[in-house]
């Protein structure tokens, strides 16, 4: 067809037709111009953020050259080989200086992020902090470099959450947690990557791109604290801060072969945490530590559960860390399950639980089978309907003018479907794929404030039911699967259902941690070939695809305690870590 310009088109019209045609052409042109101008603005903001990151890398490289010239005797390998506990001891004794440790980890983080794309920015003021760190010599984290997830506020830096609308909005002050860490002598030195909007367990966004798994660069490190998982798993940090609304600390820890703790929501201050679901209360967000070993997690908790935390945020219960509980050697009564009954675990997930159970029994602990109550009801009705009580409107509002990352598109497609269409889809799918059907219905959220209050009541009732069952068995802690092994890129956005193993403990608001215990074996891969799943629906098929080809990758278990019992949870994690020391290397 021959192309016709607006002018030629108008000439061919007469009277009102010409006026209407002019209006249509003009409106279309204005719309296209506005859209082009906005896209250009987003592109410019992203370019600026990336340039800022690259500039921070250059500054670090120059600082490292300068430091090496001034201190040729400083060696990296001995520093990098130390555990957090040993490093802290040498810093306190003075056999290592904070400057040597900081520059060593800046150099290693630079090396790791060139491979894995996990750092969004180096915090150049960390070198200035060296001038003041001696004031905090008595702090439990004196001289320890610490990595910070993107959405945790650091003064003068963006908390982007992977969306351009939050760029060029530097924070006016540090989050309470960062303030406390500094008073304990810690030195925040990098910020780390996250998925766009945070509500995804991949680690990719249009600003900083895709982070990679340190054990296999064809796999995701998990999310949303995926940058932390990759950096710590790659050796570029000893200790980091993550946040967790559905497994965002525990899934990256599992995928990257490190340890992570999701505390009870409110045990640590959440002042200064950014997100894209403000106001959501049904499923609790927590902030917590990620590290190479359990002792490091415990040291972090011991350091931050201090008077500084309780003074800066009076809403945090003034409960100091109970070292007596963490150090106890009392035998435990441990509940366990190797499946949640909703998503069939991968062979390595199930094997990890059963092998760990056997080791715990051999060590003298009592293991008691546990069946999750009404999980088929809880996941769609309490979790999906709770997180997306508004039908996804708040998240979609944050992303309304964004370039959408491919890893997030599958989720957003379902959120954007009109309510009535979701209901129709749910009805059509019900006889064929009941699990998918109930999820589509739940994606509509609630329809009124009255329904929201009812939903909150149902959450409270479910928590009571779960705790009653726990207490009736006389349990101290729980052993259960951690999602894994690491997925292929792009699958997390198609498989929100797989977060069922972790998000349950955000709903219940129980402390839960992850400990690596093994690696995927050839036998695991062979058994996976026969994986069918519980429903035989597209989600089961996708899960099998997501975890195929993972031989040699880390496998973890999840350790859980009742609310406000982080010390007991960590003590249990430490026991698992000690007993599985040999199997982790196989």
From TrEMBL:
Pfam family name, one: Amidase
MF term (GO), any: hydrolase activity
Domain of life: Eukaryota
InterPro entries according to UniProt: Amidase_CS, Amidase_dom, AS_sf, Endocannabinoid_amidase
Family from the record: Belongs to the amidase family.
Lineage: Eukaryota, Metazoa, Chordata, Craniata, Vertebrata
PROSITE patterns with a match to the protein in the record: AMIDASES, PROKAR_LIPOPROTEIN
Protein keywords: Hydrolase, Membrane, Transmembrane, Transmembrane helix
Stretches assigned to the Amidase domain: 101-570
Transmembrane stretches, start-end: 15-36
The protein's name: FAAH1 hydrolase
Keyword Hydrolase applies: yes
Organism of this sequence: Polyodon spathula (North American paddlefish)
């Amino acid at each position: 067809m021959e192309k016709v310009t607006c002018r030629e088109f108008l000439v061919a019209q007469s009277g009102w037709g010409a006026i209407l045609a002019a209006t249509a052409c003009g409106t279309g042109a204005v719309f296209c111009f506005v859209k082009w101008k906005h896209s250009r603005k987003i592109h410019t903001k992203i370019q600026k953020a990336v340039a800022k990151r690259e500039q921070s890398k250059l500054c670090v490289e120059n600082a490292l050259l300068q430091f090496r010239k001034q201190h040729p005797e400083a060696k990296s390998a001995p520093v990098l080989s130390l555990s957090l506990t040993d490093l802290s001891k040498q810093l306190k004794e003075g056999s290592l200086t904070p400057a040597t440790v900081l520059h060593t980890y800046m150099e290693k983080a630079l090396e790791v992020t060139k491979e894995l794309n996990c750092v969004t920015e180096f915090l150049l003021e960390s070198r200035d902090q060296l001038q003041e760190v001696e004031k905090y010599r008595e702090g439990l984290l004196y001289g320890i470099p610490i990595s910070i997830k993107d959405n945790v506020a650091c003064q003068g830096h963006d908390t982007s959450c992977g969306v351009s609308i939050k760029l060029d909005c530097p924070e006016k002050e540090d989050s309470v947690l960062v303030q406390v860490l500094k008073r304990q002598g810690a030195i925040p030195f990098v910020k780390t990557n996250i998925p766009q909007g945070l509500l995804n367990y991949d680690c990719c966004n249009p600003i900083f791109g895709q982070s990679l798994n340190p054990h296999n660069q064809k796999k995701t490190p998990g999310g949303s604290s995926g940058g932390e998982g990759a950096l710590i798993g790659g050796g570029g940090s000893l200790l980091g801060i993550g946040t967790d609304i559905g497994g965002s600390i525990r899934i990256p820890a599992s995928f990257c072969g490190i340890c992570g703790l999701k505390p009870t929501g409110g045990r640590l201050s959440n002042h200064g945490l950014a997100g894209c679901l403000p106001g959501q209360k049904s499923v609790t967000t927590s902030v917590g530590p990620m590290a190479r070993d359990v002792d490091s997690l415990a040291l972090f908790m011991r350091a931050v559960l201090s008077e500084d935390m309780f003074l800066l945020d009076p809403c945090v219960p003034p409960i100091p860390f109970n070292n007596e509980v963490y150090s106890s050697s009392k035998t435990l009564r441990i509940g366990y399950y190797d499946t949640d009954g909703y998503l069939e675990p991968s062979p390595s997930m199930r094997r990890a639980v059963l092998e760990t159970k056997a080791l715990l029994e051999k060590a003298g602990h009592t293991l008691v089978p546990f069946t999750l109550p009404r999980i088929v009801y809880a996941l769609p009705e309490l979790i999906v309907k709770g997180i997306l009580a508004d039908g996804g409107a708040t998240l979609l509002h944050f992303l309304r003018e964004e370039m959408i990352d491919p890893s997030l598109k599958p989720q957003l497609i379902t959120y954007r479907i009109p309510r009535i269409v979701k209901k129709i889809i749910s009805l059509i799918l019900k006889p064929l794929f009941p699990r998918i059907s109930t999820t589509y219905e739940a994606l509509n959220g609630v329809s009124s404030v009255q329904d929201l209050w009812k939903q909150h009541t149902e959450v409270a009732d479910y928590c009571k039911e779960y705790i009653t069952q726990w207490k009736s068995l006389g349990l101290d802690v729980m052993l259960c699967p951690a999602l894994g092994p690491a997925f292929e890129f792009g699958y997390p956005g198609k498989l929100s259902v797989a977060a069922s193993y972790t998000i349950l403990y955000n709903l219940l608001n129980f402390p839960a941690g992850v400990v690596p215990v093994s690696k995927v074996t050839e036998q695991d891969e062979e058994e996976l070939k026969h994986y069918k799943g519980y429903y035989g629906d597209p989600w089961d098929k996708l899960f099998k695809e997501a975890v195929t080809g993972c031989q040699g990758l880390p496998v973890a278990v999840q350790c859980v305690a009742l609310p406000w019992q982080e010390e007991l949870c960590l003590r249990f994690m430490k026991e698992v870590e000690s007993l599985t020391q040999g199997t982790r290397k196989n």
